[in-house]
């Protein structure tokens, strides 16, 4: 009976978000309360469960996500992202432009949230399309594949960062594993797949023609790349240093390796290098950061709401019951995590909602099966990207920006997301062989 209640809660969540268009945070709160009632949690304890879940999941992620949003907004508004894009494409040349824009999408996509990266970089793609008469869809899909992979696989993006906290994974290891899995996913879904899209007709709208910054106003290539890649470099460094020094429990290293400290260091460096050093007044930089918080506020609320539902499932004991049943299926826990997220993604459309809903179901299975939590983050992240279609905002952003038909959106954008998801799952399985 408990399983039917959980399935009913997921269906209700899908209906509220996908059909009735209720705000995702409110939907999570409502479903959490309803699920708590039907699962037999005492009425005076339900709100305590929901509030505890919200507090637990946000407590370890607010700094990471907010600092990541601020850094990404700084990189976008100061022209550093444009400098990265221009530098890479100039190096690769037009003949290898698909590889160049994929690299741009990956590097810029690490600190930038997906929607910000999309709105910022697609006009740069269009500038090349207009200037060099390139096929718009084939050129753009390489960059968007990279942006999508970064969004689903890599901290400090909201879903993977929060799953790291929820599964008690190691953020540095998850990032390193994620990069290993990301590269083949980007190659296959981007430059390789784009070869099959050369004849898709597309007439990007004039409204999306870019108005780039003048070259003399851009930060230097070194500064742009340094700040964009600094979080990755710091996470990697802190993951490797304990093995180099031979002291895995040194207080200073433990302090510096905390994700929130890493992000604060990266944000401080970015504030100086891209802001104050280049003549921006500190209040102007703070205004950029304030705008970044507005952009990410709803994402934080959705994460909190998902945490509330997860806690209700945990406190009712149904999560352990589901984990036991899933374990008896004799399917790989990593595959089950991917499949759960993929099903919810197809139903709801939101990768973030899919990731957190699947995580609440799968979390107890990790401890019972001794599954590597870092790989489970990546597996669920890959599943959360599976099959974007008409209920996903990203689907419509692609369609409208590139001005293509629904049919062509399905055979370009949607197939790209499927390739990313499946390749990510395969990469996780291969990594699992070597790690264990």
From TrEMBL:
<keyword id="KW-1133">Transmembrane helix</keyword>
<feature type="transmembrane region" description="Helical">
    <location>
        <begin position="174"/>
        <end position="198"/>
    </location>
</feature>
<comment type="similarity">
    <text>Belongs to the GntP permease family.</text>
</comment>
<feature type="transmembrane region" description="Helical">
    <location>
        <begin position="334"/>
        <end position="363"/>
    </location>
</feature>
<feature type="transmembrane region" description="Helical">
    <location>
        <begin position="134"/>
        <end position="154"/>
    </location>
</feature>
<keyword id="KW-0813">Transport</keyword>
<feature type="transmembrane region" description="Helical">
    <location>
        <begin position="96"/>
        <end position="122"/>
    </location>
</feature>
<feature type="transmembrane region" description="Helical">
    <location>
        <begin position="218"/>
        <end position="244"/>
    </location>
</feature>
<keyword id="KW-0472">Membrane</keyword>
<dbReference type="Pfam" id="PF02447">
    <property type="entry name" value="GntP_permease"/>
</dbReference>
<feature type="transmembrane region" description="Helical">
    <location>
        <begin position="296"/>
        <end position="314"/>
    </location>
</feature>
<feature type="transmembrane region" description="Helical">
    <location>
        <begin position="375"/>
        <end position="398"/>
    </location>
</feature>
<keyword id="KW-1003">Cell membrane</keyword>
<protein>
    <submittedName>
        <fullName>Gnt-II system L-idonate transporter IdnT</fullName>
    </submittedName>
</protein>
<dbReference type="GO" id="GO:0005886">
    <property type="term" value="C:plasma membrane"/>
</dbReference>
<feature type="transmembrane region" description="Helical">
    <location>
        <begin position="58"/>
        <end position="76"/>
    </location>
</feature>
<feature type="transmembrane region" description="Helical">
    <location>
        <begin position="256"/>
        <end position="275"/>
    </location>
</feature>
<dbReference type="GO" id="GO:0015128">
    <property type="term" value="F:gluconate transmembrane transporter activity"/>
</dbReference>
<keyword id="KW-0812">Transmembrane</keyword>
<dbReference type="InterPro" id="IPR003474">
    <property type="entry name" value="Glcn_transporter"/>
</dbReference>
<feature type="transmembrane region" description="Helical">
    <location>
        <begin position="418"/>
        <end position="435"/>
    </location>
</feature>
<feature type="transmembrane region" description="Helical">
    <location>
        <begin position="28"/>
        <end position="46"/>
    </location>
</feature>
């Amino acid at each position: 009976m408990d399983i039917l209640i959980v399935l009913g809660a997921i269906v209700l969540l899908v209906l509220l978000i996908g059909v009735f268009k209720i705000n995702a945070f409110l939907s999570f709160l409502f479903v959490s309360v309803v699920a708590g009632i039907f699962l037999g949690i005492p009425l005076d304890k339900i709100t305590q469960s929901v509030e505890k879940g919200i507090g637990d999941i946000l407590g370890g992620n607010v700094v990471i996500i907010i600092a990541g949003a601020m850094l990404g907004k700084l990189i976008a508004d100061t022209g550093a992202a444009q400098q990265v894009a221009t530098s890479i494409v100039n190096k690769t040349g037009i003949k290898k432009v698909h590889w160049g824009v994929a690299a741009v999408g990956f590097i810029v996509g690490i600190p930038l949230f997906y929607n910000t990266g999309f709105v910022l970089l697609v006009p740069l793609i269009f500038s090349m399309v207009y200037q060099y008469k390139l096929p718009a869809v084939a050129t753009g899909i390489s960059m968007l594949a990279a942006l999508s992979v970064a969004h689903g696989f890599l901290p400090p993006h909201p879903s993977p960062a929060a799953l790291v906290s929820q599964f008690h994974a190691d953020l540095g290891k998850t990032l390193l594993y994620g990069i290993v899995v990301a590269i083949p996913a980007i190659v296959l879904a981007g430059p390789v797949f784009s070869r099959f899209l050369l004849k898709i007709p597309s007439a990007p709208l004039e409204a999306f023609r870019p108005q780039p910054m003048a070259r003399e106003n851009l930060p230097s290539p070194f500064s742009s790349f340094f700040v964009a890649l600094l979080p990755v470099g710091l996470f990697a460094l802190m993951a490797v240093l304990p093995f180099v020094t031979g002291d895995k429990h040194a207080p200073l290293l433990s302090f510096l390796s905390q994700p929130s400290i890493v992000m604060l260091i990266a944000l401080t460096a970015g504030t100086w290098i891209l802001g104050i050093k280049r003549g921006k007044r500190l209040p102007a930089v703070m205004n950029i950061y304030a705008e970044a918080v507005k952009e990410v506020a709803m994402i934080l609320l959705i994460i909190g709401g998902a945490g509330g539902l997860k806690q209700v499932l945990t406190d009712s004991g149904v999560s352990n019951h589901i984990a036991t049943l899933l374990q008896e299926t004799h399917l790989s826990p990593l595959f089950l995590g991917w499949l759960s997220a993929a099903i919810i993604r197809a139903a709801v459309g939101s990768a973030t909602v899919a990731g957190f809903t699947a995580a609440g179901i799968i979390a107890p299975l990790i401890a019972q099966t001794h599954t590597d939590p870092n790989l489970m983050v990546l597996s669920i992240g890959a599943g959360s990207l599976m099959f974007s279609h008409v209920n996903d905002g990203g689907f419509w952003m692609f369609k409208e920006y590139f001005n293509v038909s629904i049919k062509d959106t399905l055979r370009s954008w949607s197939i790209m997301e499927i390739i990313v998801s499946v390749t990510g799952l395969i990469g996780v399985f291969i990594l699992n062989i070597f790690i264990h």
